[in-house]
């Protein structure tokens, strides 16, 4: 792919969908700063279609450690990167992985001459501040992506409930999602439940509690590939979701959303100020986002709050609060 390019710029962000989408403003800044270069992103292979959707990256270099660990190496071929950018974290491990490629320059928080890491900083602002330190202007609000072309939503106009999360700390109880779903159904809304390949049982239980048919479940082994998921979210009336990648996808596509935060403040990972995107949180302080049990702050959110927030985010068809909430 390097062909007639002046060189290649490599960014490392070997994490999940939400992590990718919060890095979009910084990636776009690199794209503008190096128009004659190819922009490569070292990230997990399963994110390939989402990476393409950002419009900021020319090439995916497949990498991935266990969980959120730093990959041991980046399988790079050809001449060394002109610039390597550590968007993975602030530790010496990810910085060293990039330095091993002998790039012309390395941008990173672990660089002794780089910027100071700020713990309580929004993720989008963090990576924009990093590249700006090295002379690359960046706009944290430049996060929107376009809906996939030529892909139809499997449930246009539906309210999407996404109960899953990769850690129990950020997983609001399925029974409560079910209460919200039933209130929406009673109000005349079309409702679907999404989830990943390992979340079919959870999604099915939410659908059953909401009084939805099995056809309303878009999860489990038949979980939606990214283009169909993006088309679903882009065409949805609204999305109700925990602090996960689907929340960031709704923000990126401009779809009204209600995000349920628990261990981590929305000031660090939440949507930008916009009446379409409402973050519910019963903090402070913050807790462990990777803990196995639902966070107490998350459990402090009740279904009636979610229905009220939905009514603020978009015009509900006369929904009423769940009984007993």
TrEMBL record:
Any Pfam family: Glyco_transf_9
Highest taxon of the lineage: Bacteria
A GO biological process held by the record: lipopolysaccharide core region biosynthetic process
Source species: Streptomyces radicis
Record CDD domains: GT9_LPS_heptosyltransferase
Protein name: Glycosyltransferase family 9 protein
GO MF annotations, alphabetized: ADP-heptose-lipopolysaccharide heptosyltransferase activity
UniProt keyword Acyltransferase, yes or no: no
InterPro entries recorded: Glyco_trans_9, LPS_LOS_Heptosyltrfase
Cellular compartments per GO CC: cytosol
Sequence intervals crossing the membrane: none
Keywords: Glycosyltransferase, Transferase
